[in-house]
TrEMBL record:
Belongs to the cytochrome P450 family. It comes from the Eukaryota. Its cofactor is heme. InterPro entries: Cyt_P450, Cyt_P450_E_grp-I, Cyt_P450_sf, Cytochrome_P450_fam2. The keyword Manganese does not apply. The gene is CYP2C8. It is found in: Endoplasmic reticulum membrane; Microsome membrane. GO terms for molecular function: heme binding; iron ion binding; oxidoreductase activity, acting on paired donors, with incorporation or reduction of molecular oxygen, reduced flavin or flavoprotein as one donor, and incorporation of one atom of oxygen. This is Cytochrome P450 family 2 subfamily C member 8. It holds the Pfam family p450.
Length: 440
């Protein structure tokens, strides 16, 4: 048979299959813009401003609607009430992890998204009063804090291994946020069959994991089960305790993947938030002055801050919350998936369907936050100047798959590990001897 005829037949089959799949799936899902065969709604979405496109769709189709990325349907949730009903009221059913092909290649099925809250107290001291670009330092500082937690070691900012890690993270973030990666996620066949920046991304991830494996081997050789030094030691101890459990998730691959994801998710989110925060404080000197006044009053100039100070600093707390609300760092959150067939708002959403939450619609809700496009710490203060919590504050999603700030204090649960971390870093990014990790 003529090759051209074969090609036409194959394309026709793919086209018909795409039409059948989309038409059968759309009968069950919430309404949305009519997708084109194979490419879905990609031409109707502004890839540079997805949130604006989704907001426009919500005006036509309501707070729950469906868009197609390629041939894959994605149910989008718009507005606080809708997001709350899904992620909080039906937390278990919406707790699945949305699978993206590139993410699957990177994590091998493991994923967690975090930030870093504690920062090194000496990061900007060397700049003194001279003008400086804090981008590099603000990227290094959270990365170094993660190093101190997982490796029990902080690096000098001129250390070659550290600089190599930082370079990879910067390059990977730039690639991950590029339109090409969105194309690869929609058409995964491209990942294996075509050249592109995704190959650089996957190579960088492999090199980073290789470095982490070397560190794990070093830890194994010097492990003292009675004196765990860091996260890797604690994980290895738990591995030994569960060595006879065939279903245990405490494996070397899980350890390497978790540590890698801590770096990927914690470094860029924190440094970006800090950079935007500094820009906002420069733009609003009246806010900066009030923060400085509160810092001087509560902390003074002769000691470092601690978590106990937070309850006595309502204005500073409000400023931190307003920075995260205003910059809207993760506008669509991390993708979820429904874990079972569920009837939601009179629509039937099949098991495994990807769910995307438009967090912008929550953080910029004008009923909760008057003038949401204006930077105003008053959004989180009551009439008496006390800090005011808001259920609409969802900078990193909500519910069972919320992306939480990684902290040295308080209790968090991470892959079945209950973290009870006490105290603050002693010195520049080093962990005090009082920190503990409890596995459950």
């Amino acid at each position: 048979m003529d090759p051209f005829v074969v090609l036409v037949l194959c394309l026709s089959f793919v086209l018909l299959f795409s039409l059948w799949r989309q038409s059968s799936g759309r009968r069950k899902l919430p309404p949305g813009p009519t997708p084109l065969p194979i490419i879905g709604n990609i031409l109707q979405i502004d890839v540079k401003d997805i949130c604006k496109s989704f907001s426009n769709f919500s005006k036509v189709y309501g707070p729950v609607f469906t868009v197609y990325f390629g041939m894959n349907p994605v149910v989008v949730l718009h507005g606080y009430e809708t997001v709350k009903e899904a992620l909080i009221d039906n937390a278990e059913e919406f707790s699945g992890r949305g699978i993206l092909p590139i993410s699957e290649r990177i994590t091998n099925g493991l994923a967690l998204v975090t930030g870093v809250r504690k920062m090194e107290n000496r990061a900007l001291k060397t700049a003194q009063s001279s003008p400086c670009d804090p981008t590099f330092i603000l990227s290094c500082a959270p990365c170094n804090v993660i190093c101190s937690v997982v490796f029990q070691k902080r690096f000098d900012y001129k250390d070659e291994n550290f600089l190599t890690l930082m370079k990879r993270f910067t390059v990977n973030f730039r690639i991950l946020t590029s339109p090409w990666i969105q194309v690869c996620n929609n058409f995964p066949l491209l990942i294996d069959c075509f050249p592109g920046t995704h190959n650089k991304l996957l190579k960088n991830v492999a090199l980073t994991k290789s470095y982490i494996r070397e560190k794990v081997k070093e830890h194994q050789a010097t492990l003292d089960v009675n004196n765990p030094r860091d996260f890797i030691d604690c994980f290895l101890i738990k591995m030994e305790q569960e060595k006879d459990n065939q279903q245990s998730e405490f494996t070397i691959e899980n350890l390497v993947g978790t540590v890698a994801d801590l770096f990927v998710a914690g470094t860029e989110t924190t440094s970006t938030t800090l950079r935007y925060g500094l820009l906002l404080l420069l733009k609003h000197p009246e806010v900066t002055a009030k923060v400085q006044e509160e810092i001087d009053h509560v902390i003074g100039r002769h000691r470092s801050p601690c978590m106990q100070d937070r309850s006595h600093m309502p204005y500073t707390d409000a400023v931190v919350h307003e920075i995260q609300r205003y910059i809207d760092l993760v506008p669509t959150g991390v993708p979820h998936a429904v874990t079972t067939d569920i009837k939601f708002r009179n629509y039937l959403i099949p098991k495994g369907t990807i769910i995307m939450t438009l967090l912008t619609s929550v953080l910029h809700d004008d009923k909760e936050f008057p003038n949401p496009k204006i930077f105003d710490p008053g959004h989180f203060l009551d009439e008496n100047g006390n800090f005011k919590k808001s259920d609409y504050f969802m900078p990193f999603s909500a519910g069972n798959r919320i992306s939480f700030p990684f902290a040295f204090e308080g209790k968090r649960e991470l892959f079945g590990i209950s973290w009870n971390l006490h105290g603050t870093p002693s010195g520049a990014g080093r962990i005090s001897s009082s920190w503990k990790v409890k596995f459950i």
